[in-house]
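Field log, afternoon session.

UNIT: design team B
ACTIVITY: writing a sequence onto a fixed backbone
BACKBONE:
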């Protein structure tokens, strides 16, 4: 169905045309002065020069042309030429009823029949997840869900770092400590042990130790690079050890991602495209796209319109080694062949914007990717502490992601217990803990997603866990409040059904209905711009509109049963829309807080 502003703009455009002016002047916007009107059209101002008339004269003509309109209950021409509008209750009610009758609330699911790949820009294998991995996971999961809701077939790929020097460093350090393992015996022909020779906890110490050694000892680094080459060349023992390290690392990461309600369709890494690289390099050479520059193989990606320096995209280093560019180009080629996506979305730190611009240009110029496939980079900001610097532990280290989750959920548990005590709830420790886990994840995700992805933000535990203001707990508290009303209505024999919408009972309900109608425009913009923050802003406005309605309206105490059924129907619709939106953000609501 059409967006509400689209419909009323069409009505206004027809009135301009009827009055002898141009239809395109009829664009209607939400009023920034709700004390004066609900909607406003400034087309008469724009048409003054075009038609050589005073704006107020045009506005008066259009207002007269709208006489008897079923869309607007009030149309006022106001000097110097504004058209102040009030939407008719019956028109608004019918629009909301049409939304309520549809599974997707009347949303035009424009993605049906098309595919999208979301690359989460995943962490390096064999290293613990830390606070720096939060945003790619949280934003990526929401972007994936939003695109699916729009009808796209979406493939989410963790795309972990499992192939570079970090793996050589880990393997080399394990070899130093356990040289007798069969993985390092070139003459071993038997079956390798099923399990890894180290634990995830061991890896948390092995990698930083190896990394530090490589910076101080050139010989050590050379051996790590040799181990990397053996791995990439397919040496049997090194591949077997690598597979076991991948398995234990992924299993540990999965637990943490599961607790964040983040899930991947593919657990691929950089290694997945490795075998494609030789043929791709040959294609780039044979096609005349790549050439040698200072010993390296590169592709020019500069355009005549560039206003800043755009270096060539390097395909192979002078020693013949591949780079991230090489792997990413091969991965794009693979995704195009496997999924034929209309869009591939990448999530990384915003400091990699130039890198992705190079890679995307190279993919298009060399026809590794069709021109009509949108390559879209979401560059996100950092998670900072209250001092404005990247978030650290009290001891100054980079906090593990698991520790961050526990910090939030522990504070949430404390607040939920206080809330339960103040309201006389007899929740068990287990129930309180379960609720704290649910609300804690909402606090983390909403705290992140309510910001524009490119902006840095402050990780403020006190603010994120507050039940008031623009927070996840506030949104959930609103949903729980609605659930409580609906439960009591059912206990008294009522049957809640959004099909029972039957009137507009007061200004507070009308404001709530108008808030609901922003759903379509919000979802379309959030999908097109990969901007979950737009959904956060929408549900915050909707929650505020509902809570105002709740305080201004008799609901369960209403004596007119028909009216009560209509009010309850409105609650059902608001609850369903809020629950749909928080699911798109990647969290859920408990039954009680």
């Amino acid at each position: 169905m059409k967006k509400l502003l689209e419909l009323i703009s069409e009505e206004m455009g027809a009135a301009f045309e009827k009055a002898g002016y141009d239809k395109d002047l009829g664009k209607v916007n939400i009023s920034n002065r709700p004390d004066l009107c609900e909607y406003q059209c400034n087309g008469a101002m724009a048409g003054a020069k075009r038609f050589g008339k005073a704006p107020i004269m045009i506005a008066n003509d259009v207002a007269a042309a709208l006489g008897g309109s079923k869309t607007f209950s009030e149309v006022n021409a106001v000097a110097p030429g504004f058209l102040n509008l009030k939407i008719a209750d019956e028109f608004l009610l019918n629009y909301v009823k049409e939304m309520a009758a549809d599974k997707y609330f009347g949303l035009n699911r424009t993605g049906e029949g098309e595919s999208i790949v979301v690359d989460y820009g995943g962490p390096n294998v064999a290293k613990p997840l830390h606070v720096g991995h939060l945003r790619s996971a949280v934003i990526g999961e929401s972007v994936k869900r939003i695109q699916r809701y729009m009808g796209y077939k979406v493939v989410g790929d963790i795309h972990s770092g499992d192939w570079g020097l970090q793996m050589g460093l880990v393997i080399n350090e394990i070899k130093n400590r356990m040289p007798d393992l069969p993985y390092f015996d070139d003459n071993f022909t038997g079956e390798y042990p099923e399990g890894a020779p180290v634990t995830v906890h061991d890896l948390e110490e092995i990698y930083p130790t190896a990394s530090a050694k490589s910076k101080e000892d050139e010989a050590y680094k050379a051996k790590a690079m040799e181990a990397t080459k053996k791995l990439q060349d397919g040496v049997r023992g090194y591949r077997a050890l690598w597979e076991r390290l991948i398995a234990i690392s992924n299993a540990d990461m999965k637990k943490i991602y599961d607790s964040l309600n983040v899930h991947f369709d593919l657990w691929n890494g950089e290694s997945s495209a490795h075998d494609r690289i030789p043929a791709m390099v040959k294609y780039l050479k044979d096609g005349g796209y790549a050439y040698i520059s200072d010993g390296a193989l590169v592709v020019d990606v500069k355009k005549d319109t560039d206003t800043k320096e755009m270096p060539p995209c390097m395909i192979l280093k002078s020693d013949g080694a591949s780079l991230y560019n090489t792997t990413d180009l091969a991965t794009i080629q693979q995704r195009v062949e496997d999924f034929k996506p209309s869009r591939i979305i990448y999530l990384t730190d915003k400091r990699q914007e130039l890198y992705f611009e190079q890679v995307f240009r190279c993919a298009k110029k060399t026809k590794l990717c069709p021109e009509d496939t949108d390559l879209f980079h979401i560059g996100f900001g950092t998670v900072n502490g209250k001092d404005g610097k990247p978030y650290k532990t009290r001891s100054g280290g980079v906090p593990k992601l698991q520790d961050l989750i526990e910090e939030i959920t522990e504070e949430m548990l404390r607040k939920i217990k206080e809330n339960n005590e103040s309201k006389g709830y007899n929740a068990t420790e287990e129930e309180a803990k379960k609720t704290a886990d649910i609300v804690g994840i909402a606090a983390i995700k909403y705290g992140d997603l309510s910001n524009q992805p490119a902006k840095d933000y402050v990780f403020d535990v006190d603010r994120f866990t507050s039940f008031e203001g623009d927070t996840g707990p506030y949104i959930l508290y609103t949903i729980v409040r609605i659930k409580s009303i609906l439960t009591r209505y059912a206990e008294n024999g009522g049957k809640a059904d959004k099909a029972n919408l039957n009137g507009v009972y007061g200004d507070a309900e009308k404001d709530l209905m108008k808030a609901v109608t922003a759903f379509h425009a919000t979802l379309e913009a959030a999908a097109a711009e990969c901007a979950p923050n737009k959904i956060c802003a929408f549900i915050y406005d909707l929650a505020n509109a509902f809570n105002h309605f709740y305080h201004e309206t008799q609901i369960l105490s209403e004596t007119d049963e028909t009216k009560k059924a209509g009010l309850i129907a409105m609650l059902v619709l608001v609850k369903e829309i809020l629950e749909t939106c928080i699911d798109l953000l990647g969290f859920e609501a408990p039954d009680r807080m």
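LOG NOTE: Residues 4-87 form a domain with the Gyrase A; domain 2 fold (CATH 3.30.1360.70).
NEXT ACTIVITY: expression trials, pending approval
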